[in-house]
Write a structure and sequence with these properties.
The complex is a heterotrimer of chains A (about 400), B (about 290) and C (about 600). With about 290 residues, chain B is mainly α. Chain B has 11 helices and 2 strands, in the order ααααββααααααα. Chain B has one domain: ABC transporter involved in vitamin B12 uptake, BtuC (Orthogonal Bundle), CATH 1.10.3470. Classes of the chains: A alpha/beta (about 400), B mainly alpha (about 290), C alpha/beta (about 600).
């Protein structure tokens, strides 16, 4: 900077000093009200809620399911009169599966005046957004299931389904205690869902005195699992536990059968979706043991009703993720009704106080933000999930 | 032992696909001195187009694949035409231009076919061959056969036809080629189109083996590129050897290093390239003053 | 009109603009809500990354697709050291910068051997390897990342506020940008740009290519690491998705669209694309399509990027309005100061070539050549095309390593040494096909060889910047005087490509002289020159010799050879076939046969059989 002659340097310094003085007088941003702490002054306006999910990128399927489930519930509520006459206005944001984008969106929805948030379906993004949402006092109902979410101890974070540990301990119990399997192999991927499943299922097996005969990890974007499956095949397992998302799980099953593996497939939530079945092929998917709180659209009258409404609205049948999102939205609506469209910590407490009988079970939130504590076991038969006997 | 051979067979099957990708890279490099970073994206477009013809239009697989090659070859022609002003002038800029073209193709694929992937059922429904417990899907054998045929056809084209000779002449000295009446731009366009068609062939063939997603071209492209460099950029036998090599290395790395397999493959590859940048068969390349 | 124009000057306008920008940047947070300030914070980090990219790609010409990995190393190192090992933020940050520098050295290693597309794929591969590692390693938290990174403490200022963090980033960024600009405009940056434009010519004028490439990567890693440290302290949570290949290509697009050869362009590209990305956040695929198309368009139509457009527009406007300006003219050559005759060494051997053999894969270009160049002489090397003359020069100047034989300069063996080393020992050359640094001004072309310091001298950039500044000023003074000697003073600010061919030739000659050589090798200096230019050339060469430099020239123009050279060596098919004073060599039958062929010679018996 010493190129310029002295007097320009001095004038620049003077300008800078002036700016510093101005800054010292009042820090910027201090006059910005953080939304959520103000009461809903515009009592007649719509209730703004954000939906943040991956609408692009590899996780966009889950994002789509969640958006549809939430929207169905909100549309139904609005059609029935809304909350004290006020409609709920949903705004969809695309986090692209990227935690950095997530953090920016957290600030964006705060400044846009959204009082609550649904999403995301990706634990890593939810983890990144949680501290900001907490400081902005915005309650968040997420589809994530990672136990790391609980470690945040945020009073504003709620899960709309069971934790991964619940899925896996129920599954392990069924496999080991009920069916008596001893030789169990594990194949998980290395993203936060797969890593969580790896940890949870291993722990569940250990508590039942079983060690897996093989554990393999594949990258989350890998589509050729044959090397890992070859190593597993050599150990002749009775059961193959999979911890991966829907499409990759389906591919794993397809490739396992192509290798001649006859092991029974066992999995948590992803195996209960149509995407899993279509990727694996119905013949390969038959016999899969699924641990899920939502075994299908026929398990109860409520599920049938939900499925009918969903199909009417979107032209496709719903599955677990849509059902979870629907339940989560229903809980939020119930809380809003109970506290007269309150915001911030009051809304969070209202959510915690809700007892709701949903598609997944009875919601009753504890202090960690978990509301559902059990899953069911189903077996895929003829392309449909039947509850296990 | 059975496990070893199974892994080997799997590696060779995918190696054949990498070899096809590497062939396309090498061809474009050999005739234009251009490294095409859009090659992976072109492969992905080929996979989507082929699967669309096969699944939605219900064309037979043997028709869907060549149709996809033609469509994708046309895409290659467009890319070459757009980047033509940079040919033989600034290679770094052209490299970046192909990165941009790849980005465009990725975005177009998402806009047309959405980001969720699609599975492609195998067109060969016969039971896999079972040799001593080692299972080889019949389709994989088909892929290896097609790759061998492609190599033969390409070699014949380059060495026996006028267009092929013209392409090689342009590679050696584009100014001299112009002087003897070869239209360099048109020759480069043909070269690019063939390269794109080879990528499309690889993508179309690999669809039933894997899963068609908008990001499938990224890793396949990088593996194919690594294969081309390893075998010797510009050499056709090198592309085959490099492809099979990368396929087998990757297969065994996936078993031993599991989640870290990409890392291992690349560290090995970086070290090899630094020791011998010209690859196994040496670099037969453009004359760049 | 002209009165007003006289008040305005580029320097003043730039200074004024800078002050305005600085004040605007300082006051910006007051105008932004909490969302946009966080966007601004992200934009500054990308701008910092982009400056690093600009330095390594645009200035030094190294393809670097691993910048996102440097970003990741800085961020992850900070995160791990603070959350797992309990270091304070600033300590962890300093260690993280060290880690980033090590990463820069590792990524720079391949650059010593490979370039361009190979380097691109290798750096991309290393980035993929890094991403793979952070996704799998337990220490990095895998795909779930690391959370709970503490806020950096700073004298009680609450940096948890995005607004106040902006100022921290702004200060770091301003410092980084200033340092980057300082490098670009001083000897180190000039050498990098010369290396970018023509690595061969750069090494021939004394640039240590390998060290510079490594330095470029280390620079990029410093900026990447700094951005990573700041990012960790800003977001308090890092995960692998932030450091993806998609973000790498986005960063590349920022640098290309803005203008990679200008640091200001890189910054503009980074900030512009960040803002656009935010605006199109719900249309991610369209945004990607958009910036991909813009990259292709920029690369084909406006390679200098957005920052190059005003310049091109202004030039177009000037042409349209008919302002052609006053053409720069060549001034007469001023003879160089003659060197005092040095006792003893006059006439002694300066360069000795002994038994030199040069083979390329079966072609023997030089076959057992031995010759001596005497100090203070003007030696001509002639021969038919393909006789190995330029190959001989290439071996002497270090571009090739001889298959056998030695080359000695002043008694010291130089064969096998690299070109830059040989240049430092006092050999300079021109090239058969002009090799000027096309994107450097005429003055800059001179400044590169004038700088005789080694690369490690550059530690002063960090340790003692005023020393660099003083050195640069001295170099500029010497360049101006040398340009004046050669009559090129009026061309100082122009690019070589815009000059007439004859003037480019003279520039290359002046550039060769700038490195104060003892031995000057001229490869066909008269090619393409007209009669007047040739006689000027002869006068210049004589003056160069009189100033104490030994000259060897390859020439095809026999008139020039005859009048200028004191001794001539004739090469044919890689061997010396004649040697001596010009008149003698011209009559040598072997020489005639080589040039004209056997049939042109008079029959050997005709003279004897005269009756």
């Amino acid at each position: 900077m010493s190129r310029r002659p002295r007097y320009r340097l001095v004038s620049a310094a003077a300008a800078a000093a002036a700016a510093l003085v101005a800054a010292a007088c009042s820090a910027p941003g201090s006059s910005q009200p953080s939304s959520g702490s103000t009461s809903s002054g515009a009592a007649a306006g719509p209730i703004k809620i954000a939906v943040v999910d991956a609408q692009s990128g590899s996780e966009s399927d889950l994002g789509q399911f969640e958006w549809r489930g939430v929207k169905l519930a909100v549309d139904q509520a609005n059609a029935a009169g809304g909350i004290d006459g006020r409609k709920i206005q949903l705004t969809l944001y695309d986090d692209q599966g990227d935690p950095t984008v997530g953090t920016e969106l957290a600030r964006k929805i705060a400044s846009a005046g959204d009082i609550a948030m649904f999403g995301t379906a990706e634990s890593a993004v939810t983890l990144a957004m949680a501290p900001i949402l907490e400081s902005e006092h915005i309650p968040n109902i997420t589809s994530g299931q990672s136990t790391q979410l609980l470690a945040l101890h945020s009073p504003y974070l709620f899960l709309n389904g069971p934790t991964g540990l619940t899925y896996d301990s129920t599954l392990a119990k069924y496999l080991v205690t009920t069916k008596g399997y001893k030789k169990i192999a594990m194949l998980t991927n290395n993203d936060s869902y797969g890593a969580g499943e790896d940890e949870a299922f291993t722990a569940s097996l250990k508590s039942l005195g079983i060690t897996p005969v093989a554990t393999e990890v594949v990258p989350a974007d890998q589509t050729n699992m044959t090397p890992a499956l070859t190593a597993i095949r050599a150990k002749n397992p009775q059961v193959l536990f999979i911890g991966a998302e829907e499409a990759q799980s389906g591919l794993i099953v397809k490739q396992a059968r192509a290798l001649g593996m006859t092991a029974v497939i066992a999995e948590g939530a992803p195996a209960g979706t149509p995407l899993y079945m279509s990727t694996a092929g119905v013949a390969n998917a038959n016999g899969t043991i699924v641990s899920s709180p939502y075994l299908g659209n026929d398990v109860s009258p409520a599920a049938r009703k939900f499925a009918a409404a969903y199909t009417a609205a979107y032209g496709t049948a719903p599955e677990l993720h849509g059902a979870k999102a629907y339940d989560g939205a229903e809980v939020m609506i119930a809380a809003l009704k109970a506290c007269n469209a309150c915001t911030g910590l009051a809304l969070a407490n209202a959510i915690r106080a809700v007892h709701y009988a949903g598609l997944l079970g009875n919601f009753r939130y504890n202090s960690s933000g978990v509301g559902i504590f059990a899953t069911s076991i189903g077996i895929i038969t003829d392309g449909k999930i039947k509850p296990a006997g | 032992m059975q496990s070893f051979f199974q892994t080997l067979v799997s590696g060779l099957s995918f190696g054949a696909v990498y070899a096809l990708v590497a062939l396309g890279f090498s061809l474009v490099y050999r005739t234009m001195g251009l490294v095409n970073f859009a090659h992976g994206a072109v492969l992905m477009i080929g996979a989507y187009v082929a699967s669309t013809f096969y699944l939605s239009a219900r064309l037979p697989f043997a028709v869907a694949v060549p149709a996809a090659m033609i469509v994708t070859g046309a895409v290659g022609l467009v890319i070459e035409r757009v980047l033509r002003p940079l040919e033989n002038k600034d290679f770094d800029l052209m490299l970046i231009g192909t990165i941009g073209a790849g980005t465009v193709l990725d975005a177009v694929a998402i806009l047309i076919w959405s980001s969720s992937g699609r599975g492609v059922p195998s067109p060969v429904q016969t039971a896999p061959f079972d040799i001593g417990g080692v299972r080889i899907p019949a389709y994989n054998v088909l892929v290896i056969g097609v790759t061998a045929a492609a190599m033969a056809v390409l070699t014949l084209f380059l060495q026996r036809t006028r267009h092929g000779a013209a392409m090689q002449a342009v590679a050696m000295d584009h100014e001299a080629a112009t002087a003897v009446g070869i239209h360099v731009g048109r020759s480069n366009a043909i070269s690019f189109a063939i390269g794109a068609a080879l990528a499309a062939l690889a993508g179309a063939l690999v669809g039933p083996m894997l899963y068609v997603t908008p990001t499938m071209g990224d890793s396949l492209g990088i593996q194919g590129f690594a294969a081309a460099i390893l075998g010797g950029f510009g050499s056709i036998p090198g592309a085959i050897v490099g492809g099979l090599g990368i396929g087998v290395i990757g297969s065994f790395a996936a078993q031993s290093f599991q989640g870290y397999s990409d890392l291992v493959t690349f560290v090995v590859f970086t070290v090899l390239v630094m020791i011998r940048p010209t690859g196994i068969f040496g670099e037969r390349t453009v004359n760049r003053a | 009109m002209s009165r007003l124009w006289s008040l305005w000057s580029p320097g003043r306008a730039r200074a004024g603009g800078l002050v305005v920008l600085a004040v605007a940047a300082w006051l910006l947070p007051y105008r932004l809500n909490i969302y946009w300030i966080s966007v601004a914070d992200t934009a500054i980090l990308f701008a910092l990354l982009a400056v690093g990219m600009g330095l390594v790609m645009g200035i030094a010409g190294q393809v670097n697709l691993a910048q996102i990995a440097f970003f990741g190393v800085g961020a992850y190192a900070t995160a791990i050291l603070t959350t797992r090992d309990g270091f304070g933020f600033w300590t962890a940050g300093a260690l993280a910068m060290l880690a980033a520098v090590i990463a820069g050295l590792v990524v720079g290693l391949p650059a010593l051997r490979i370039q361009s597309h190979y380097l691109g794929i290798v750096t991309l591969g290393l980035a993929v390897a890094f991403i793979d590692w952070i996704t799998n390693a337990p220490i990095t938290g895998g795909d779930s990342g690391i959370s709970g990174i503490p806020t950096p403490p700073l004298f009680g200022i609450d940096l948890a506020s995005q607004y106040l963090y902006y100022y921290l980033e702004l200060i770091v960024f301003a410092g980084g940008l200033a340092f980057g600009l300082f490098i670009v405009r001083t000897p180190l940056g000039r050498r990098m740009r010369a290396m970018r434009d023509d690595p061969l010519a750069a090494s021939a004028v004394g640039v240590e290519i390998r060290m510079l490439r490594m330095a470029a990567f280390v620079l990029a890693s410093v900026y990447g690491g700094a951005a990573g440290v700041l990012y960790a302290g800003l977001v308090h949570y890092i995960a692998p998705e932030t450091f993806s290949i998609a973000d790498m290509f986005l960063l590349l697009a920022m640098v290309i669209i803005g203008g990679r050869q200008s640091l200001a362009g890189c910054v503009i590209g980074a900030i512009g694309l960040t803002v656009v990305q935010q605006e199109l956040i719900n249309l991610a695929a369209y945004a990607q399509l958009g910036y991909g198309l813009v990259v292709v368009a920029v690369v084909v139509f406006a390679p200098a990027g957005l920052v190059g457009i005003p310049g091109r527009a202004a030039a177009w406007y000037r042409r349209w309005r008919g302002h052609t300006g006053r053409a720069a003219a060549l001034e007469p050559f001023r003879p160089l100061p003659a060197a005092p005759p040095s006792p003893g060494s006059a006439g002694g051997a300066l360069l000795e070539v002994a038994g030199l053999v040069m083979r390329f894969r079966g072609v023997t270009a030089i076959d057992d050549v031995s010759l001596t160049v005497r100090e203070g002489e003007i030696l001509g090397i002639v021969g038919p095309n393909g006789s190995g003359k330029t190959t001989l020069f290439n071996v002497i100047s270090g571009l090739y390593r001889p298959t056998a034989g030695t080359v000695s300069l002043g008694g010291r063996v130089i064969s096998g040494a690299g070109p830059h080393r040989i240049c430092q020992l006092g050999v300079a050359r021109t090239f058969q096909h002009l090799r000027l640094f096309g994107n450097l001004t005429v003055a800059d072309n001179m400044l590169v060889p004038l700088d005789r310091t080694r690369t490690w001298w550059s530690w002063r950039y960090i340790g003692w910047p005023p020393g660099v500044w003083r050195h640069d000023r001295e170099l500029k003074w010497r360049a101006a005087s040398l340009l004046g000697c050669f009559g090129l003073a009026q061309f100082a600010g122009l690019l070589p490509g815009s000059l007439p061919y004859g003037i480019q030739r003279r520039l290359e000659l002046a550039r060769a002289m700038a490195s104060s050589p003892r031995l000057l090798l001229l490869d066909e200096p008269a090619a393409g020159l007209n009669g007047e230019e040739r006689s000027q050339l002869a006068a210049i060469v004589r003056s160069i010799r009189d100033s104490g430099v030994t000259v060897v020239l390859i020439e095809h123009n026999m008139g020039l050879v005859m009048s200028l050279c004191e001794r001539v060596i004739v090469l044919d098919s890689g061997t010396v076939i004649a040697e001596g004073v010009p008149a003698q060599v011209a009559r040598d039958p072997a020489v005639l046969e080589a040039y004209l062929g056997k049939s042109a010679l008079p029959a050997p018996h005709a003279t004897e059989a005269s009756p």
